[in-house]
Amino acid sequence: MAKESANARLEAFCDGVFAIAITLLVLEIKIPRIGSTTSASQFWHMIIHEWPAWFGFALSFVIILVAWVNHHDFFKLISKSRVTFTYANGLLLFSVAAIPFTTGVMSEFMMSDLAKPAITVYCFGVLFHCFSWFVFLRTAMHPVPILKDEATAELVNSTIVKYNRYALFFYLLLCLLSFWLPYVSLVIMTLSWLIWVVSAIKLNSKND
Amino acid sequence: MAKESANARLEAFCDGVFAIAITLLVLEIKIPRIGSTTSASQFWHMIIHEWPAWFGFALSFVIILVAWVNHHDFFKLISKSRVTFTYANGLLLFSVAAIPFTTGVMSEFMMSDLAKPAITVYCFGVLFHCFSWFVFLRTAMHPVPILKDEATAELVNSTIVKYNRYALFFYLLLCLLSFWLPYVSLVIMTLSWLIWVVSAIKLNSKND
Amino acid sequence: MAKESANARLEAFCDGVFAIAITLLVLEIKIPRIGSTTSASQFWHMIIHEWPAWFGFALSFVIILVAWVNHHDFFKLISKSRVTFTYANGLLLFSVAAIPFTTGVMSEFMMSDLAKPAITVYCFGVLFHCFSWFVFLRTAMHPVPILKDEATAELVNSTIVKYNRYALFFYLLLCLLSFWLPYVSLVIMTLSWLIWVVSAIKLNSKND
Amino acid sequence: MAKESANARLEAFCDGVFAIAITLLVLEIKIPRIGSTTSASQFWHMIIHEWPAWFGFALSFVIILVAWVNHHDFFKLISKSRVTFTYANGLLLFSVAAIPFTTGVMSEFMMSDLAKPAITVYCFGVLFHCFSWFVFLRTAMHPVPILKDEATAELVNSTIVKYNRYALFFYLLLCLLSFWLPYVSLVIMTLSWLIWVVSAIKLNSKND
Question: Which of A206, B149, D46, D205 has its CA 20 to 30 A from that of B87?
Fold first, then answer.
């Protein structure tokens, strides 16, 4: 049974898709063309004017990095694979590949009159990603967990699976909120990634 | 003999090409530019108007994901390599890299007057991919199978090789049909991927 | 000494660059836009009109595939690494990343009045790639071969190193010839890749 | 504890991002379009006119290759991972993905009146990359080094960590200098990469 190597290759393929998705929005940051500007102050204005594109790139980078870290940590817990799991993993990769688009739309319009619908698109992109984690976790746990042992399965059920449900509910609320108070949704959503990273670091320092 | 590691690197290279091809059509989904729209309803119209591009991306994603799963399952059965096999594998990767183009043409034109030729292009793209599997399987089985053992070789001959021939015949029929009834071809072709995924999941649940 | 794993990672990085370079020219094959054509015959004309782009993609695919196969075969022979070798390998990757550009220029202009200079660009691209192999092989053999053992080093010296010098001389001639008889250079150069693949397959079938 | 495989996957993911970043600027070298030129001399002029784009591509290639070699060498010294380290590694990848942009801006404007601000952008890009190495090294050494053993930790502290601080100071000076003497900064910065490669090769030849 080449189950270990089977997952090794699944991980390698996922890493490829993650690596492409995480660098995708850098393509949206256009190098200014010669002739498009003549004075240094205009040049700096153009570079600084690109900041929403940089914000979008940095934000999608963080979101996909967090997704990669979680994906990578979860794969350390499983010991076999399953067809439903492989395809649910495909759905997860699809939602990861969609993050640069939804984040890019938001960063393009966030300083304009159309910030409201653009932020809604961004929030739904994150909600879809969170939903794909829900499907991914479900196929990993049902009908029989593909985890290493019983104890790991129970731990996953009482932590990751539970947190995913909270996150699903939380992001759904942010999606709805974005119809009325888009900037509040945007700030909470963006802070949620920073809090995630900081709390993961803090939790880990304790165990260190 | 470093045969195991030889295939490990062949797989890593293939995974890279698969990962790029599967994310390629996301580049076709353009982020709307600031100034191209002024009202929220127009913004939503632009986002929704992109649905054929999303359909094309999702469809090419599913086709290439199925190809990757099959490729990955087949590599678990083989134990050595061969120059003809390496180059046939290259042909398979070439046909995978062509899928985003043929699927993209179809999704661009499927709601227009030119749906008929565009669907024909899509069908021939799939037929070419199926033909490259035929060459790939042939070089793996001839003159001597590179599979793990005799039993595996017989199993592959009576299942994968046979199904590939049926698929070749089936997709050829859909290509011809697309000249008269393009939408029928499109629906059957697209359903065939969903049926493939669902039947693979069902088959696997039984064995679970 | 983690030498085995060191090369494993070097190979993984190279595979990434090879995988990107091999799929790069597919981005040059533009999906025709809705509205750019209204009749089916015009649509087919546009699709068929893209054949030089397809030819360029297929050709750069074959060139880079052959380079990958050679790279992969050579790495099976070496057992350690060296800083000069790592950087020479970088030069090789650079020349691989340049192949899509030089091949793309040629395929864009090969049916026009400017075929002559475009074919020269293509020939020099291949010459540069061949030269980077020369540097790569030199750093692998000097001052002390990094190959598995003495016998392998002698075999490499009497085959790969020698063939590389012949190839360097041969491609230099084709570069010079391209200034007078561009199409002859183009046909010989393109045939040389096919002959390479076919002869590799024939040689291998004998040993099988 | 699957710590070895954990880092294996972290390396694979990084290799994907490095491979994409290193080939990114090749997309900036546009294949001239048919019809944009009619005479051979004009064709050559267009090809040669692209030299700043080639210079930018080659330069970002060298910078990222050096970063990859250092990253790869450093990972051979560590034996475990840590959440802070994973995220600091993400910051490092972010700065690597930004190199093609800052280098591309510089190469686009370096022959124009706007060379000064463009070179400043390039210098700050390198400074940011150097700073991300500072953070990366700090998380690897604090609170407890994740290196293989005590001796390695001391060696890293007295070499890599120290050199990184010198580099940080050196690049900061070049950034400031670029406001007054941009071309001097550009030449010193660019030479610093060549000196780095040459000195690494020389150092290695001695130990060989």
Answer: B149
The pLDDT, as a whole number, for residue A3 is 40
Q: Check residue D1 and report its DSSP letter.
A: -
- Helix, strand or coil for residue C164? helix
D114·A40 Cβ contact <8 A: yes
Chain B residue set in contact with C, beta carbons under 8 Å: 2, 5-6, 9-10, 12-13, 16-17, 19-21, 24, 27-28, 82-84, 86-87, 90, 93-94, 97-98, 100-101, 104-105, 108-109, 112-114, 116-118, 121, 143-144
- Between B92 and A30, the more confident residue is B92
Strands (E), C64-114: none
For residue C190, give the amino acid letter.
Answer: T
Can you list the residues of chain C whose pLDDT is less than 50?
Answer: 1-5
Q: Is C31 left (phi over 0), alpha (psi -120 to 50) or beta?
A: beta
CA distance C114 to D41: 10
Q: What pTM did the predictor assign?
A: 0.90
pLDDT (tens digit, 9 = 90+) per residue, D46-87? 888 888 889 999 999 999 999 998 898 888 888 888 888 889
Residue B49 has pLDDT above 50, yes or no: yes
pLDDT at D1: 31
Residue B176, both tokens? 């011809």
pLDDT (average), residues B157-182: 91
Distance CA C82, CA D205 (A): 9
φ/ψ of residue C193, rounded to 5:
-70, -40
In angstroms, the CA C204 to CA C197 distance is 11
| C-alpha to C-alpha distances, C178 to C117, C118, C122, C123, C186, nearest whole angstrom | 8, 9, 10, 8, 8
